[in-house]
Backbone:
């Protein structure tokens, strides 16, 4: 077997559902990583809002190493200490009383949507099955979750699609009021639409959704896969909206890079997923739960949350200055270290071109659709790393502004 791999190897051996960059990272430390040629990059992407403690974090390494010498896998036929400890801690820190573990955000949302359907059917009858979701939402890549997500590009070619799902404009209270009825089993929303362009839910909209769910006996489901685990400046974003959901999903930053997802809910609602109704072979894996437990304790430290808020101000301030200086994008939005900017009209549809140019300059960014640049660095990123990344972005924007047609 060959030990030498390049970007071309991807095209030769991988299914072509991705189109990764030409560079191949081989090592990371904190908020920087290095490619095969030894070139250094500042990481403003965080593995798509995943590596909340950066790369090669010693706390995570210690937790993984200690658990690796005990138990790796058991399945759900028996339980394990790391899973129970993590579930116990999550219920202490949130509204929830019950936890279901899985391996990703998509799986967590799949569990939440199945719970909502079964809860409606069990308590009110099969007619209570409608799920209301919102345009431009993103909830995962399973067939069920892409259908609940409000982006048709992810469902094209996979028809026939599951029914009983209605999409509405986001932050439109009147539209939600008009659509709600007693056949709705759940309203599903992101506190900040991530893939849809970093659009925050207004407190008024979230509070109206809560009131309408109460009125029509429906579940309010918050998808906090991207916004959770300290990302927005509180442990979970629902804390900033003045509402408490009935069901919440989390993943991404929960494991800091180790695959894990979770669905959280109350004891009463959890009864709908009785024995045998749902499962996951790897869900609650001891390795994943041990790492996630260590990550959660770090994220809960006041000094880390303070850093999120301070670095958020620094990042937003720097982006606002770059916006004024170069005119390639508008003012920043978002909470904590989940920040987005909409590109100028002359760059509409070409946000990825800016990301590619930034990568060539040693800076890793993300897009959130074709018109939005997304920033989701580690929560413990330093002031120095933010400054360095903004300086690199400044150079990129200067080059692009000088040749806007490129």
Residues:
């Amino acid at each position: 077997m060959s030990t030498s791999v390049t970007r071309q190897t991807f095209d030769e051996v991988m299914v072509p559902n991705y189109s990764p960059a030409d560079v191949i990272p081989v090592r990371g430390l904190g908020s920087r990583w290095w490619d095969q040629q030894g070139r250094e990059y500042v990481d403003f992407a965080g593995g798509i809002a995943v590596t909340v403690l950066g790369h090669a974090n010693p706390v995570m390494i210690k937790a993984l190493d200690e658990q690796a010498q005990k138990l790796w896998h058991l399945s759900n036929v028996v339980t394990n200490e790391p899973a129970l400890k993590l579930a116990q801690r999550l219920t202490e820190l949130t509204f929830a009383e019950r936890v279901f573990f899985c391996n990703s955000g998509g799986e967590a949302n799949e569990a939440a949507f199945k719970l909502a359907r079964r809860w409606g059917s069990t308590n009110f009858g099969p007619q209570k099955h409608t799920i209301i979701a919102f345009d431009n939402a993103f909830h995962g890549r399973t067939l069920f979750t892409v259908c609940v997500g409000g982006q048709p590009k992810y469902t094209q070619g996979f028809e026939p699609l599951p029914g009983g799902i209605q999409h509405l404009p986001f932050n439109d209270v009147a539209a939600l009021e008009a659509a709600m009825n007693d056949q709705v089993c759940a309203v599903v929303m992101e506190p900040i639409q991530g893939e849809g362009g970093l659009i925050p839910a207004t407190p008024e909209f979230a509070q109206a959704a809560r009131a309408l769910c109460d009125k029509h006996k429906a579940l309010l489901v918050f998808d906090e896969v991207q916004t959770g685990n300290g990302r927005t400046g509180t442990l979970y974003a629902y804390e900033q909206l003045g509402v408490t959901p009935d069901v919440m999903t989390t993943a991404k930053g929960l494991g800091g890079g180790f695959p894990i997802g979770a669905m959280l809910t109350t004891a009463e609602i959890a009864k709908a997923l009785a024995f045998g109704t749902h499962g996951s072979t790897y869900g609650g894996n001891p390795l994943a739960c041990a790492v996630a437990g260590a990550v959660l304790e770090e994220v809960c430290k006041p000094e880390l949350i303070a850093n999120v808020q301070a670095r958020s101000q620094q990042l937003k301030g720097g982006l606002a200055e770059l916006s004024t200086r170069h005119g390639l994008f508008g003012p920043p939005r978002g909470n904590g270290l989940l920040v987005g900017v909409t590109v100028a009209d002359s760059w509409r549809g070409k946000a990825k071109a800016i990301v590619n140019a930034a990568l060539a300059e040693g800076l890793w960014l993300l897009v959130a659709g074709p018109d939005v640049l997304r920033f989701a660095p580690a929560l413990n990123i330093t002031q120095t790393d933010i400054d360095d990344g903004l300086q690199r972005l400044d150079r990129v924007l200067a080059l692009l502004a000088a040749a806007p047609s490129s």
